[in-house]
Amino acid sequence: MDKQQLSQIFENYLAGNWAHARCSLNYENPFQLICATALSAQCTDKRVNEITPNLFRAYPDAFALANADYDSVAAIVKSAGLYQTKAKNLISMAKALVERHGGEVPDTMEELTALAGVGRKTANVILGNIWHRPGVVVDTHVKRISNRLGLVNSDDPVKIERELEQLIDGENHCIWGHRCISFGREICTAKSPKCTICGVKDVCKYYASL
Ligand code: SF4
């Protein structure tokens, strides 16, 4: 079986079982999503969702956050981990949004990754969920699962992103990511994956090696 066939089987399985998967970060506009995604690095989405209501109440848009003082932002995001860097980056990002984009969130990979604290993962979250553009989000679940299945053989997120983009239709990149992450949380967990109840075990490289 080639990777394209394997990918199609996995995509069908995800679509059949996690049809309604969605972004687990709470947001109401592009500004809120880019802030929440930036905060989610090495932090659970649940924790981010506990933090962001206070953050957005204090700083409802890029203009407000651009003028925030560091200590106040740091106090709000403290429980997100790496909070000093995250607070600094949030303010810098907001300043750049105001100075370069009129306070709006841009819609290209190049402009997004030029913002403080915004890597390709965050940029692809924005491109897919806000602007409905192609781009595979490679988080810890996608990285683990795509390697276990045998869709890729790499630790490099950029290489994984490029290879998955070749295997999945661009219009499905965003929903595929949400479904894959749901599958990773429920079945193909980092520790003790539930292989015996997994619907793609018959085509999984990791399962074949057990
Ligand atoms: S068989 Fe196991 S390792 Fe393979 S995709 Fe399913 S849960 Fe993950």
UniProtKB/TrEMBL annotation:
<dbReference type="GO" id="GO:0140078">
    <property type="term" value="F:class I DNA-(apurinic or apyrimidinic site) endonuclease activity"/>
</dbReference>
<keyword id="KW-0234">DNA repair</keyword>
<keyword id="KW-0326">Glycosidase</keyword>
<keyword id="KW-0378">Hydrolase</keyword>
<keyword id="KW-0004">4Fe-4S</keyword>
<feature type="domain" description="HhH-GPD">
    <location>
        <begin position="39"/>
        <end position="186"/>
    </location>
</feature>
<keyword id="KW-0408">Iron</keyword>
<keyword id="KW-0411">Iron-sulfur</keyword>
<comment type="similarity">
    <text>Belongs to the Nth/MutY family.</text>
</comment>
<dbReference type="GO" id="GO:0051539">
    <property type="term" value="F:4 iron, 4 sulfur cluster binding"/>
</dbReference>
<dbReference type="GO" id="GO:0006285">
    <property type="term" value="P:base-excision repair, AP site formation"/>
</dbReference>
<protein>
    <recommendedName>
        <fullName>Endonuclease III</fullName>
        <ecNumber>4.2.99.18</ecNumber>
    </recommendedName>
</protein>
<dbReference type="InterPro" id="IPR023170">
    <property type="entry name" value="HhH_base_excis_C"/>
</dbReference>
<dbReference type="InterPro" id="IPR003651">
    <property type="entry name" value="Endonuclease3_FeS-loop_motif"/>
</dbReference>
<dbReference type="Pfam" id="PF00730">
    <property type="entry name" value="HhH-GPD"/>
</dbReference>
<keyword id="KW-0255">Endonuclease</keyword>
<dbReference type="GO" id="GO:0003677">
    <property type="term" value="F:DNA binding"/>
</dbReference>
<dbReference type="GO" id="GO:0046872">
    <property type="term" value="F:metal ion binding"/>
</dbReference>
<keyword id="KW-0456">Lyase</keyword>
<feature type="binding site">
    <location>
        <position position="198"/>
    </location>
    <ligand>
        <name>[4Fe-4S] cluster</name>
    </ligand>
</feature>
<dbReference type="Pfam" id="PF10576">
    <property type="entry name" value="EndIII_4Fe-2S"/>
</dbReference>
<feature type="binding site">
    <location>
        <position position="195"/>
    </location>
    <ligand>
        <name>[4Fe-4S] cluster</name>
    </ligand>
</feature>
<comment type="function">
    <text>DNA repair enzyme that has both DNA N-glycosylase activity and AP-lyase activity. The DNA N-glycosylase activity releases various damaged pyrimidines from DNA by cleaving the N-glycosidic bond, leaving an AP (apurinic/apyrimidinic) site. The AP-lyase activity cleaves the phosphodiester bond 3' to the AP site by a beta-elimination, leaving a 3'-terminal unsaturated sugar and a product with a terminal 5'-phosphate.</text>
</comment>
<dbReference type="Pfam" id="PF00633">
    <property type="entry name" value="HHH"/>
</dbReference>
<keyword id="KW-0227">DNA damage</keyword>
<dbReference type="InterPro" id="IPR004035">
    <property type="entry name" value="Endouclease-III_FeS-bd_BS"/>
</dbReference>
<feature type="binding site">
    <location>
        <position position="188"/>
    </location>
    <ligand>
        <name>[4Fe-4S] cluster</name>
    </ligand>
</feature>
<dbReference type="InterPro" id="IPR000445">
    <property type="entry name" value="HhH_motif"/>
</dbReference>
<feature type="binding site">
    <location>
        <position position="204"/>
    </location>
    <ligand>
        <name>[4Fe-4S] cluster</name>
    </ligand>
</feature>
<dbReference type="InterPro" id="IPR003265">
    <property type="entry name" value="HhH-GPD_domain"/>
</dbReference>
<keyword id="KW-0479">Metal-binding</keyword>
<dbReference type="InterPro" id="IPR011257">
    <property type="entry name" value="DNA_glycosylase"/>
</dbReference>
<dbReference type="GO" id="GO:0019104">
    <property type="term" value="F:DNA N-glycosylase activity"/>
</dbReference>
<keyword id="KW-0238">DNA-binding</keyword>
<keyword id="KW-0540">Nuclease</keyword>
<dbReference type="InterPro" id="IPR005759">
    <property type="entry name" value="Nth"/>
</dbReference>
